[in-house]
Write a structure and sequence with these properties.
The structure is a homodimer of 211-residue chains. Helices cover 53% and strands 5% of the residues of chain A. Among the domains of chain A are: 1-57 and 76-93, Arc Repressor Mutant, subunit A; 107-178. Chain A has a 3-stranded antiparallel β-sheet with strand order 1-3-2. The first copy, chain A, has helices spanning 2-10, 17-28, 37-49, 81-92, 101-109, 116-143, 150-178; strands at 15-16, 53-56, 76-79. The first copy, chain A, is built from 7 helices and 3 strands, in the order H-E-H-H-E-E-H-H-H-H. By secondary structure, chain A is mainly alpha-helical. At the A-B interface, helix 5, helix 6 and helix 7 of A face helix 5, helix 6 and helix 7 of B. The structure holds a DNA duplex (30 and 30 nucleotides).
DNA sequence: CGACGATGTATCGGGCCGATACATCGTCAC
DNA sequence: GTGACGATGTATCGGCCCGATACATCGTCG
């Protein structure tokens, strides 16, 4: 999951760890608290070892003192061509973990870099999963209600409500995708395999990337 | 977290691993998928090593063949007095992890074994945490909106909606606790420290169990 | 000039997960 | 009858991720 998010973010700009964490927190704030350095740095190391990211030297604008204090500091990473391929591959293969809460959230956050067919597949997979959870909760609330205390039941009710709400949300998103009215068009840059289908936004309003 | 849930469940009845997992899934179905055996069995071992649970022998009703096939099978665990103390201690000390999604859900699921003052403290801590998340999302949606693509924004909006909804839910629960109209009275059994305050439900209307 | 908070990198122990293996039991189809 | 299948049941292993902790630099404000 972290691997996916890092590869996604580094396609927008090279970054160092601290920055990466801030951007991650902003982008994924709706679904998870804040990424831990205890997972971030080891993951960066892993991605670098795999050749998917590399260190981008800090290009010190010449004028500064060359190496007097040895100047150790931030390590900026950038994605490689192999990294972009890896990201595309991770998007394409949707496993079961793609549909759990965190996995879905992370994938959704990078829908702008995902082609429409895959978006639709993921949304439907998520819907199916939530529907199953909803049925499970209904079962418990119906059949096993007398075995549980009132607090537990209240928790189930709240969970059931959240499920129903999310299914409705997903239905809306799916309908939008089907009719071509996606919230935005996929980003077209990014060498190493362009998205094959840029759903044209017919009622065109696509929030500017930069003003 | 798992430790807490196991100690809580074993106070209702002795159980073996498989059963424990099913009960856990039923009780916590609203907040997490299903507990993995890869965490359940090591945790059981850990709890046993700490002396908080013990194996309860399978009392083979005499009539069966004594030990012809050696009869290896389910291992039933039951909670010890030290285990009950440990559980009470885990309830009393509310750390930051008590208010994250999973932690709060698990604690809430055992509110029937929690005294009213602690219930109130946990509900308010959770509310505070969700309010902070809500403010963070509002900030991002307000100040950093043009930096994010439409899908990411949609995710934030959905998250914000869920936050507002949960805060309202918590407000209701808190008001109920304050007025003594808790969904149910805490369980009174359980040796090793009875709950000190069984909030009586004065204006009794607690959602019909069955029509 | 020293305290403080933001920035920034890094490690360590441990909890939990997914995959996997394996054994028993009842039931139903062939 | 017998063999396939799904539920029951215990267990391990590698790996991801987290929380705690440590440490160093920089700008700012009292």
């Amino acid at each position: 999951m972290l691997e996916f998010a890092i590869l996604g973010l580094l396609q927008e700009a090279p970054m160092h760890g601290y920055e990466l964490r801030k951007e991650l927190t902003a982008k994924l704030g709706a679904i998870r608290a804040a990424i831990s350095y205890g997972s971030l740095y080891p993951t960066l190391r892993r991605l670098q070892a795999a050749g998917w990211i590399t260190e981008a030297n800090e290009t010190p604008t010449v004028s500064d003192v060359p190496a007097l204090t040895s100047r150790r500091g931030r390590v900026v990473y950038k994605i490689t061509a192999e990294g972009k391929e890896r990201f595309a591959q991770l998007i394409a293969q949707a496993g079961p973990e793609t549909y759990d809460d965190t996995g879905f959230g992370v994938h959704f956050a990078f829908f702008a870099r995902t082609d429409q067919a895959t978006r639709l597949r993921i949304l439907e997979g998520r819907r199916r999963k939530i529907e199953e959870r909803r049925e499970g909760l209904r079962d418990v609330l119906g059949r096993a209600a007398e075995r549980l205390d009132a607090y537990t039941l209240e928790l189930q009710r709240h969970g059931l409500d959240a499920c129903e709400r999310e299914v409705r949300w997903l239905e809306e998103l799916i309908a939008n995708e089907r009719s071509g009215r996606a919230p935005t068009a996929p980003i077209t840059g990014a060498a190493g395999g362009r998205p094959e289908d840029n759903s044209p936004p017919p009622p065109g309003e696509s929030r500017e990337e930069r003003p």
